Amino acid sequence: MLTNSTSTQEESSGRATTRNTDAPILGATPGAAVGRYFRKYAVFSGRASRSEYWWIALLSLVIYGVGGALAGVIQAATAGTNAYGDVSDETTFGAGLIGSLLFLYFLATILPNIGLGVRRLHDVSMSGWVILIGIVPFFGSLILFVLSLLSSNPSGQRFDRR
To answer: Is the pLDDT of residue 84 over 70?
Structure first.
């Protein structure tokens, strides 16, 4: 019988341990959550705990928030005026560069974000296909937000690889 356990380095304590790599990390630290997020770049099986999910959500919020604020400050500081004396609405190089970097980050994290969302749904014992409800404007995102707040359901183990 095959099991999906692997000997890995425990992120928080530095000691070696054997664990099921599909099981959620309960009470994940930020480092453990980010490490697993990138190690499971395009993995859609297994489960993700609330802490794993919300540390990544916070990281994304910080990256987009700081990047957007920085782009806004650069845009405001370097914007010129047009021939009529009005503030130019053209994007400056610095703001455009930051916007481009944020877009590249978005593209680089599409698959891991979908994978994390699917694994979070698995942890609450729902099919990963439920993530498609997110394409419904406003209400789809609201439903996924509420589902991401639910606590783990033991029957979600059925989504772990055997």
So the answer is: yes
